[in-house]
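@channel sequence for tomorrow's demo:
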Amino acid sequence: MNLVNVSDLRQRLPDYLKQVQQGEEITITLHGKSIARIVPNYPDNKRELALKRLEALRGKMIVGDILSPLDDEWTGDANNL
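structure tokens (generated this afternoon):
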């Protein structure tokens, strides 16, 4: 989320609107206090929204148990059931 002063928003409105189109939220401030937010208008289709979120996460996370030795077989929660 970006904090943007009103005067800066006026000068660079098209740039900030492009950021909102890309999914960012912008908080507008006046004299250092938050007065409004500009948020993306998400599509009604929840499936499309979920796919976009997953696409944004691609390559940014590690899957698996990183603490166990590589030769240990993972049993999930079988021993805690």
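heads up for whoever presents: Helices lie at 6-11, 13-21, 46-57.
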